[in-house]
Specification:
With 220 residues, chain A is mainly α. Chain A contains 7 helices and no strands. Chain A has a domain of 78 residues. In chain A, helix 2 crosses helix 3. The relative contact order of chain A is 0.06. Chain B is mostly helical and 703 residues long. In chain B, strand 3, helix 21 and strand 4 form a beta-alpha-beta unit. Classes of the chains: A mainly alpha (220), B mainly alpha (703).
Chain lengths: 220, 703
């Protein structure tokens, strides 16, 4: 790669990143629209609008790729092609309905409330059954310390969250309710904060590396 | 003055010098000059010795004899054989026949010579009466001259016998071939090319002496053994090896001149005979020109020669030559250890017998197997590889990885299909736990009581929603999938119902494609109770594409991001959603009175918190979360400068919200189902623990 081309891409990436980053530290109300910073801010909005368009295009490409993959699967009669055929039929039907009568028409809402909503809710209900079975097998077959701690914590939170404890009064019930709150708001929140701090530090480092052109995901 | 350059040592010698003054090599080859044409004529007229034609057309005389004999006898049935024999007959024999025919005693051209009769004698007996007169005379003469000499009956076996002859026999043969003194003028000597001791320039390096003569390695023997051509030349100088030659008995009439006399007469250089004419035992070393000492030999050959016993008087015959000397640097480079000057060859009995291959059963075969196939140890010790501990550990790790990859994975046994009874049992328990509470009222069973303990986070939230001004709409973000609608619709329903009850305008948006229909369904349900109408009390902006970037852009300039709404009233279907009276005065996110994010995912909650922080201003941000997302969002709520102003999580909080906000408590069956289901799961876990402990105790007892 030529050095000039590399510098061009790096300059564009770094400049765009800095312009977008400055928007977090600038008070919009205090910037005159006809000033240099105001123009830069307008440029920032333009760049972000391009990013939104690119995301929409990426979504379209993803849908096209999904359709093409399943179309090839049906054409080659590979195993499971019948499910792909159902997906293609549903895909085409939904797309045609959305393009012709609109996504907010009564027919589309009826299809959504009658098919998609019950199906996804049922999947979530199956998740509850699966988790219950996994917990049973865990305590029945794996009797190590970590498993006992894991299942014991889940059991205490369930007990403390249930109506039987919350609706009752007394020291015993208050103990479980307080224990549940401590586990959720102290122990779990402490771990969550650690995760958030790690994510924040990683995001900062990654952003700085891109801004300093150390990492060039846009290519060499 | 012209000079001759020695072909051996390149020393310049005088033109007349015959041998090199430096190395003694012969400068002039011992080649007889081509005799003049007048000397060849007598040969054509009289006796033409075979030797004169040996080089070229020496086979013609035999062919002529045969042809003449056949023509004279008139035997037609032998014509084919004669024709065939003509091709193979040597020319010198034919010319000899011509010479014989010219002699007085010679047979006429029509007759077959007597030695040819030997071939025919096997078939028929020839009586004395049938023998012609000339043949009788020839036979008588032959008997008189060759009495006591062995006769040769087989014309084609004379070469074989000649090779097997003893030196006496060879000497006799040479004597028999000697021309007489009166005939030496007409005899041409064969070209003694093999007698020239000076090697030509292209002479290859001499073969090691040990390999040629393992036992008798004297120089004289060496010459005699290594120069078979000289021997054969002495024996039969006429034809080349391989050419047919008449039997010796038949050549008695051929006069063989004395070689020395012949050469002296011609003034040519004298070359003594390789064998003494009288005894035949004269060593070849006596021939000065053939003395191998005059030839430069490599050192290794000289060493072997010096080690072998020499013939007495040989040292006196050596020319005065200085041994070859090597420069010191070349001497130093000369391989000493790798070259064996003397090779001890074992006797045949000791040598192993070849056991394989085409040479099976032979002794003395060079054994290639010990050199090629048998394992050998290195002649030099290999340097020890220096390996550090770290390298050794890495090598072991690599080896373990390779072994792990090469390990054969046992085939997975196809387990028997078993009915998932445990799964079905748990599913049945949970299903009954959720369904049964809906019949508690019909069954007269009292359900769970409402929560008596209220979270400390709930009161501020109720106060916030209850005190929000209604002049500007509240933005509600529906960022959850339909799978979470069972939980979040109940939790968010309490909050939204409170807002609708207070006539707070609601504008919805979603970053998920399934968000707008969920929002329409929930608000339509709530609005039906409070007379809220789409377009007047609530409005859907629709799907916000672009992820976090779109959220930030929406926070900065919502009008530039969302151009068309979702499920808009007919009054707004033709225009833009921003023309709605509900959105008047809304140009950025901070223009909303309240932002409520309903989500089940922590990433979505963080996106809305982080991307809108700079532009949300003083607008409160409230999170309605699934129970699983609460821990990751709570840090934003419990910070010293909270970025989230309110949080509502789970069904108990929603029931409490309804209970303490004055909303109708229509969640009785749901609350009971939630409580029974939680209890069922707790019992399942406890049962699993009990089963595991019991199993452990049983196994412990068995041990």
């Amino acid at each position: 790669m030529k050095i000039g081309t590399y510098l061009l891409w790096a300059a564009m990436a770094v400049g765009t990143g800095i312009i977008v980053l400055l928007g977090y530290f600038v008070q919009i109300d205090q910037i005159p629209a006809d000033s240099l910073i105001g123009n830069i801010f307008e440029l920032r909005l333009l760049i972000m609008g391009w990013a939104v368009l690119l995301a929409a295009v990426a979504l379209g490409i993803g849908l096209f790729n999904l359709f093409l993959v399943h179309w090839m699967k049906v054409s080659a009669q590979r195993p499971g092609w019948k499910y792909s055929a159902v997906l293609i039929v549903a895909f085409v039907l939904t797309l045609l309905l959305g393009l012709i009568i609109g996504p907010d028409s009564r027919v589309v809402l009826f299809l959504f409330n009658s098919i998609q909503l019950p199906v996804e809710a049922s999947l979530m209900a199956l998740l509850a059954i699966t988790l219950s079975l996994a917990g049973f097998r865990l305590v029945a077959q794996r009797r190590d310390l970590i498993s006992l701690v894991f299942v014991g914590t889940a059991l205490l939170v369930l007990i403390g969250s249930g109506p039987g404890i919350l609706s009752a009064e007394g020291l015993f019930f208050s103990f479980f309710a307080g224990l549940r709150n401590w586990l959720v708001q102290v122990a779990a929140a402490g771990g969550a904060r650690g995760i958030l701090l790690g994510v924040a530090l990683g995001s900062i480092v990654t952003g700085l590396r891109v801004l300093l052109a150390v990492d060039r995901p846009y290519g060499e | 003055m012209a000079e001759n350059r020695c072909p051996m040592c390149s020393t310049m010698n005088q033109e007349t010098a015959e041998v090199c003054s430096n190395c003694g090599a012969r400068l002039k080859p011992l080649v007889f000059e081509t005799p003049p044409s007048d000397q060849q004529e007598p040969a054509a007229e009289g006796i033409s010795p075979p030797a004169t034609e040996a080089s070229g057309d020496g086979d013609d005389w035999l062919a002529n004899i045969r042809s003449d004999a056949i023509m004279g006898s008139g035997v037609d049935d032998h014509a084919a054989e004669t024709d065939a024999a003509d091709d193979a007959a040597p020319d010198w024999l034919g010319r000899l026949r011509e010479a014989d025919s010219s002699l007085e005693e010679g047979p006429p051209s029509e007759e077959i010579p007597d030695w040819m009769d030997d071939f025919l004698a096997a078939g028929e007996e020839v009586t004395d009466e049938e023998v012609p007169e000339w043949l009788s005379r020839v036979r008588e003469r032959r008997e008189a001259q060759t009495e006591g000499q062995p006769e040769s009956d087989e014309g084609e076996d004379w070469i074989t016998r000649l090779r097997d002859d003893t030196p006496d026999e060879r000497r006799a043969g040479v004597e028999g071939l000697k021309p007489s003194a009166d005939e030496d003028e007409s005899i041409e000597q064969p070209a003694p090319r093999a007698l020239d001791p000076s090697p030509p320039p292209d002479v290859p390096d001499p073969v090691p002496q040990d390999e040629i003569l393992p036992e008798e390695a004297t120089p004289s023997h060496e010459v005699g053994a290594s120069a078979p051509a000289l021997d054969r030349l002495d024996e039969d100088p006429q034809p080349a090896v391989g050419e047919p030659m008449p039997p010796e008995g038949e050549m008695e009439w051929f006069p063989v001149p004395d070689e020395s006399e012949l050469l002296d007469a011609k003034g040519l250089p004298h070359v003594p005979a390789l064998l003494d004419e009288e005894t035949g035992e004269k060593p070849l070393s006596d021939i000065s020109d053939l003395n191998m000492d005059s030839i430069e030999l490599p050192d290794w050959l000289g060493e072997s020669k010096s080690e072998t016993p020499s013939v007495a008087g040989e040292e006196d015959e050596k020319p005065d030559l200085a041994p070859a000397t090597l420069p010191s640097w070349l001497e130093a480079m000369r391989p000493v250890d790798t070259f064996r000057s003397e090779i001890a060859i074992e006797s045949d009995e000791v040598q192993p017998v070849e056991s394989a291959g085409p040479l099976t059963g032979l002794r003395g075969v060079l054994m290639a197997e010990p050199v090629v196939a048998m394992p050998r140890t290195a002649s030099t010790a290999a340097a020890r590889l220096e390996v550090t501990e770290r390298q050794y550990a890495q090598a072991e790790l690599l080896q373990r990885l390779v072994e792990e990859e090469e390990r054969e994975i046992p085939p997975v046994r196809a387990e028997k299909r078993r009915l998932p009874l445990m799964r079905w049992a748990i599913a049945l328990i949970l299903l009954l736990a959720v369904i049964l509470p809906f019949g508690f009222k019909q069954l007269g069973v009292e359900g769970y009581a409402l929560p008596s303990v209220v979270s400390r986070d709930l009161a501020p939230l109720i106060d916030l929603i209850g005190n929000i001004p209604t002049d500007r709409p509240a933005l509600v973000v529906f960022d959850y999938t339909p799978g979470y609608s069972g939980e979040l619709d109940t939790v968010a329903g309490a909050l939204l119902e409170h807002a609708v009850m207070r006539s707070l305008p609601i504008v919805t948006v979603s970053t998920r494609p399934t968000g707008p229909p969920l929002a329409e369904g929930l608000l339509n349900k709530i609005g039906a109770s409070y007379g809220a109408v789409n377009g007047e009390n609530y409005l859907h902006l629709g799907y916000l594409s672009g992820g976090p970037t779109a959220v930030q852009l929406f926070a900065i300039a919502p009008r530039s991001v969302v151009l068309s709404g979702y499920h808009l009233p007919e009054s707004l279907s033709e225009g833009s959603v921003w023309e709605s009276p509900l959105l008047q005065g809304v140009h950025r996110l901070s223009d909303f009175n309240l932002v409520i994010v309903i989500t089940a995912g922590t990433d979505t909650a963080r996106t809305w918190v982080e991307q809108t922080q700079s532009w949300i201003g003083d607008t409160p941000l409230v999170m309605v979360l699934s129970a699983g997302a609460e821990p990751l969002v709570r840090p934003y709520f419990e910070a010293s400068e909270p970025q989230v102003d309110g949080i509502l999580t789970g069904l108990p909080a929603a029931v409490s919200y309804r209970q303490y906000s004055g909303l109708p408590l229509d969640t009785g069956a749901q609350w009971d189902a939630f409580g029974i289901g939680m209890l069922a799961i707790e019992l399942i876990l406890i049962a699993g623990g009990a089963y595991g402990i019991g199993l452990w105790l049983i196994r412990l007892r068995e041990r």
